[in-house]
Every structure is written in structure tokens, then in C-alpha cells.
Amino acid sequence: MQNENDLKNDVRATLNLRRGVKEGTKRGTYLKVNEATKKRIIEAAVNGADWEDIVLANGCKLSSARRWITTGNCKNKQRGGKHEGIIKLNDAHEDYLLTCIEEDCQITLCKLKEKLMQKFGLKICESTISRHLENKLYTVKKVTTVPIGANTEQNIAKRRAFCENIMHLTGLGKQTLNFTRNHVIFR
Which one, of 126, 81, 119, 73, lies nearest residue 100 by Cα? Predict the structure, then answer.
């Protein structure tokens, strides 16, 4: 019996060296145990057999095996990819976004986010909305506004007079030192 326990401890020590964090790396490799092995371990524990031998023979961690036994859960969790039931925007939401855009083509992502929150109770970020709109071939651009008085007849006449004055002074041989939007300094 003593030799058997010593053998188990030696096997555990070698497995921990092999599975643990290796020197020079941040993390060891993840060992994914299949469901059949988990079921065998759970059945052995339920039947009163030595489940630790099965765990050690398959290179599993004892703490993981204890969790499988206590919870009775032997299904592997999905890692990566699209998870079922976690779809943030469905077709109805996308259709609502498109109708909002058709009503107001200058609506911002922030306003779309607020409208989704009001109508559907969805709390999502602007990047998610943008990604779904890009999938529908809508691109989001930064809106630049033109001042209302920028192109009135009076302002066009002022700009024309300003340019004619610069052309007249440069025609007289004067050189510009500093040109800003509101005034020009000549030598």
C-alpha cells in the first residue's frame, strides 16, 4: 500500500511539472478533456471506485475532476466563435436602424443607440451599430456642417473684394509675409 501511494505521488509530481507553467513562458498549454473521460471519472466516483487513478492516467487535474464530480457536469464549454443566444442585434433591430436612417440621413450613432435603448431596451455600443450597418453596406462618415451664412451674396462679395485687394497689392510688387484668414501682412 505504501509503494502504491508513493507511485501515485510520483505520477502527480511528473504531471504537475509537465502541465504547469513552464519556465520562460507565461502560461502552459491548455489540456482539453473530452466528455467520455469526464463521464468515466464521474461514474467511478459515483460507484465508489478509485477515480483519482483514472484522473492521473488521463493527465487531468484533480481540482477539475473534483468540480466535475460535485457538479455532475461533463459538457465542454464552447470556446470562441459565435455563442448561441448572445446575438445583440437581430433582423428586426437592423430594420429599425435602417428606417431611422431613411427618416434622417444625418442621424448619429449615439442617437441610434438611444433610439434602440428606448424602443427595444438594448444597451449596446456605437461600434456594434456601426459594424452591423457596414454589413448592410452603409458607411458612417463624420458630419461636417457648413455655416448658413458662409455662401450668402454679401459674404461672397467680401471674399471677392479681399482676393482682388491681395492681387492688386501683389501686382504692385509687395510680397506677403503672413497670410491668415482675416488679414494679410505685406512688406
Answer: 119
